[in-house]
Amino acid sequence: MMGISWPQLLIIAVIVILLFGTKKLRNIGGDLGSAVKGFKKAMSDDETKPASKDADFDKNIEHKESATAEDLEKEKQKEQG
Asked: Is the pLDDT higher at 39 or at 1?
């Protein structure tokens, strides 16, 4: 069995505490916690907000639907010169 046992985890934890110190580890833990909290908040805000649509795209569709065939031909002639 190639897993890490409890005594090995304890030794690794002691070495990490000796290398970094408790104050630095506490700061890292707080930063990580606030990052996760901010990520969760952003995800929940994204789900509650409706998707925004492109205003120009909607106007173009409405314009084409309300335009008559004559209006469309006039626009094509203006574009061609």
From this structure: 39
